[in-house]
Amino acid sequence: MTDGLPALPTLGPVTRRVPPSGARRLWLPAVVTQVRDETARAKTFRLAIRGENVDRHLPGQHYDVRLTAPDGSTAQRSYSIASAPGDGSEVELSVERIDDGEVSPYLHEEIGVGDEVEVRGPFGGWFVWRGDTPVLLLGGGSGVAPLMAMRRYWHTQGEPVPLRLLVSVRRPEDLYYRGEYGPETTVIHTRRAPDGDGRPVGRLTAADMEPLLAAVPGATAYVCGSAGFTEHASQLLVTLGLPAADVRIERFGPG
């Protein structure tokens, strides 16, 4: 089920920070309509985008966000869309605060409901999922954001295909979107686990992933997080027999 999603761009692997070659996108004003705390260092901003014929996004795409200072200087960063596709006029972006970043500290400290930023997008043609094929999602920390767009879309469409989601976090309080997950989701803790958790703390292992792969035969895997997480997780997938061509990776950088 694709529910009228836009056509998939015919692109190979691209980095998250570079818009598709030849893409024509204008900067549009976007008003903040809601701000939610996800963790002590992450917030989700709901944006109402102003403009005609705003493109509906695909799960896994991202928007560029631009801030302009009084002296005219600008700074911009790319943030994954965490919300399921709607009519294109509203999206949610989850932003982790990076203390030495150019954009995220300002968003966290200065931007609230009613404020306006500029956005451009949506971008991304490789790390997208249309909701009609089995899928395994692996997210490290803030890397769960684009995967949550996929999981939310899957849920709104009636969960039509097999999906499993694994989220790796250091501590329980680092988990984004808590309270929203169902039995399709496995959460592992690498530094400190909650009381009663049956898994010893530590890095993601093949034993964590093997039953998830078995539950989604023929799946494409989407891996998102830091460079270290994505490299480790993707190598485990290939070791377990998933063809490398069926592993899609998105790495996060500072913001």
UniProtKB/TrEMBL annotation:
<feature type="domain" description="FAD-binding FR-type">
    <location>
        <begin position="25"/>
        <end position="129"/>
    </location>
</feature>
<keyword id="KW-0408">Iron</keyword>
<dbReference type="InterPro" id="IPR017927">
    <property type="entry name" value="FAD-bd_FR_type"/>
</dbReference>
<keyword id="KW-0001">2Fe-2S</keyword>
<dbReference type="InterPro" id="IPR008333">
    <property type="entry name" value="Cbr1-like_FAD-bd_dom"/>
</dbReference>
<dbReference type="InterPro" id="IPR001433">
    <property type="entry name" value="OxRdtase_FAD/NAD-bd"/>
</dbReference>
<dbReference type="Pfam" id="PF00175">
    <property type="entry name" value="NAD_binding_1"/>
</dbReference>
<dbReference type="InterPro" id="IPR017938">
    <property type="entry name" value="Riboflavin_synthase-like_b-brl"/>
</dbReference>
<dbReference type="InterPro" id="IPR050415">
    <property type="entry name" value="MRET"/>
</dbReference>
<protein>
    <submittedName>
        <fullName>Ferredoxin reductase</fullName>
    </submittedName>
</protein>
<dbReference type="Pfam" id="PF00970">
    <property type="entry name" value="FAD_binding_6"/>
</dbReference>
<keyword id="KW-0479">Metal-binding</keyword>
<dbReference type="InterPro" id="IPR039261">
    <property type="entry name" value="FNR_nucleotide-bd"/>
</dbReference>
<keyword id="KW-0411">Iron-sulfur</keyword>
